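If you are new to this repository, start here. Below is one unmodified record pulled from the training split, so you can see the exact layout before writing a loader.
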Amino acid sequence: MIPKFLKKRIFKAPVTADSTSENNTSETDAGPIVSKPYANAPINQLYRKLSGQLLDVAVKPKLLGELPEFDSDDQILRFYVLQDYSRSNSILIDLQTQEHNLPPALVGVNDAAHNVKENAAIIFLNHPSAKDNQLSPRLSRLVSAVLQYPELKVRLVPVSILWGRAPEKEDSLFKLLTADNWQDPSISKQLFNIGVMGRDTFVQFHPPQDLRTIINDSLKGDVEGPAIFDSVSTDLGTADLTPTNTKSVEDASTNDDVETDTEVVPSYTLVAAADGNRELVRMLQQQLTIYLDKQRASMLGPDLSDRRNLVDKLVYSPAIKHAIEMEAAEKGTSVRDARSQARGYANEMVNDYSHSIIRGFYKFLTWLWTQLYDGVEVHHFERVRDLATDYELIYVPCHRSHVDYLLLSYVIYKRGLSIPYVAAGDNLDVPVLGPLLRGAVAFYIRRSFRGNALYTAVLREYMHTLITRNTPIEYFIEGGRSRSGRLLPPKMGMLAMTVHSQLRQTNKPVVFIPTYIGYERIMEGGTYIGELKGKPKESESLIGLLKVGRKIERIFGNVHLSFGTPLHLSDFMTKFDVPANSLPSDRTDSPLDEKTSAMVDNIGVKVMQHINKAAVITPVSLLSLVLLSAPKAALDESSCREQIALYQGLAQQLPYADDTVITDMSPQEIIDYGIKLKLIERTPHILGDIIQVAGKQAALLSYFRNNILHVFILLSFLSALVARNGRIKRSRLDSIAEQLYPFLQGELFLYYPAHGLAETLNKKVDSLLSHGLIVELSDDTLSVPESNSKRYQQLQVLATPVGQSLERYFMTLALLAQQGSGNLTESEVVDLCHLLGQRLSVLYADDIPDFFDRALFTSFISALTRLDYLQKDDETGILTFDHRINDIASHAKYVLTPDMMQILQQVASLNEEEITHAITEISNKKQRKFGRKR
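And here is the target side for that same chain:
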């Protein structure tokens, strides 16, 4: 116990921030800002040092987000803003600022020129000993100083501290004691958290905010702003420097041994006479509190109800009660039976969030990624963080692998945002793995529930519940994993449910986050190739999971996540004139009108286009694109380096989109990297080493080539038009490109609008000209380079990738023309093209699986129908067409070689007996497959 007389000497301290009287004019002369220890007393310095050492042993915080960037101006005062006072928070922030070389937190700030003297650089917005209307004294003094001195610069850095990241869930005493939820932590709870949750503590520094800017914005945004500003200015101009005996809450926090109830250090405070100054500070304090509340919500997520209560709320909600009554009336069952069925559906799908499982997954996945991958590269994540506080986030990633579920959630969680609920197919709800995923990220939905009105109602209401409670959601808009590496056509079901919810009730505005996921090797690669070739899809099981586990020691390179430009639902609603809150809030069966349905379709296409915009051009995808375009998938090493450098140059000179990321590896590093991953191999040769695709890897490399095919497809198409013809007029090139572009656009989700295509084509042609790949003659004719030149060979390689797409188109058109209008349905055309593609691939295309992908033929038929080249009978599904089908096919001669056109014509030539036999066999196969599923 320190004697009182000694305390007075020790803690009488240098003049505090309040000690700005007219009598110490010698200290108010202009001078530099000085940082001083937060108390000159040795006992305080010792207390700070010992407390810091003890906390550093018990607590190992994890930094979330980016560190704040400060101006180099030495005249700027910097203060950290914390929402709630606690000694542990003060010391923790001080340790973090020291560790990351930031301006120290528990060091005094002295700016004599502006009468600012604070014994610590921390502002607490709330304090347990403060009265109801108590304002932060330190914030009040800084506001007064900023208003009094126009040249004073103050930066506030809001800081979030989380002792654990479990959302509130009042079904466990242990969680109530440990989780950093929405209750302000008491001293006992802080001590308990240090001991129990010290290793699960998170700190996030938010971007610095200029205090003067905040003040000006607050005054402008308030109706009474000008009046308040006038009163504040007037009062400050005539304010007295009045001695007071009020001690700041912040000062008390840093002098823990001071008996603040009886021993108060005299100070002098700048006091404004009017209420305007106090109202301004209260307004600023409220804004900062709301800001930190939103940041915490984005990290913790909403409060949770336990699963049983959530199921009850769903079943007894007005919307589901109505759906139950409709189901009972339609099926002739009792309401009780219908309710029991609805409860069963809810139990099938509802997530059972467990923070313990989340933490377990986080630790396991941190280990797993280091075993599987050389690194996890994340691009453009800050745009997501900027939206998280004010928007309902809907993550819509492409779907490459089962790893996607865990990888995306891991990245989001590691970077400090609330983990999204993932819509997963019920095929993943298998023993052991299923319950774990349900406790972590997944809510399960059936892969097909068409015609089941009650199931649809329960799912819609569950989605609506999640969205209105501001729960981030993730679903794969393609509906399933891509087997070819291309994006699949979007499924609109979950998208329509999201829109339906937003039109029923608006809480936070919805924003879609298109997300590109790119691998350099993929676990399911061999399975995908087999499925494309007709092998039945393997069902998920524990045995399958164990088989995957055997691959952990293999090399999988890097994995890339790139977050595309967000798509705001409100922008689409404005574009399509869809009013907000236009659906009844107590119904799930309200249909979407024609305008809204068109809007949903447009959102789906835009999501896919934005995913492709955010593509990452990896070393493996570049290698795949180059080598699979070369004769026999091999090049000499020098030519391979030059071709890779050419592709990098083309992508950098005219980027596909601002969000597209290009590898910064050199061509030689890319080749060496491919050899390391055992995807390619180097064959020594006396005239120069040969780089070729490793054995049996060509089919797999086509997957990674297709990931970035859209980036180079127009360059490849234009190169093919010039290369196959030798010379071609620009006008002719534009005409052919404009007619065939819609089919490439539909297949690869190209974002270039058709009405502005001419300008895009001109830029692409200019890029080819600048690299010497084509030559422009005087009469507006484009020509190939000299046939024996290096550029000519590079042009031939660049022209190859588009070939397989055009071959599929021509084969389909040849089949339609041969069979005639009105003889085949859409499904029959797709099935027959799929069979013909398989045959063509085995016989002539080195077994590359692109021709096996049914989705590509479906996309082409859909594009022909959308553009009115094909007409489909609504009742029979029969396709009819006219001479324009032959007109499109006639363009093939400008791109495909005569030999290839003859092969395609021959493959597509089927007589009536062959057609009948093929359709019968396909039908029987589908029935057997359906029977196995049932």
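Two things worth knowing about this chain: The first strand starts at residue 34 and ends at 37. The chain has a mean pLDDT of 81.
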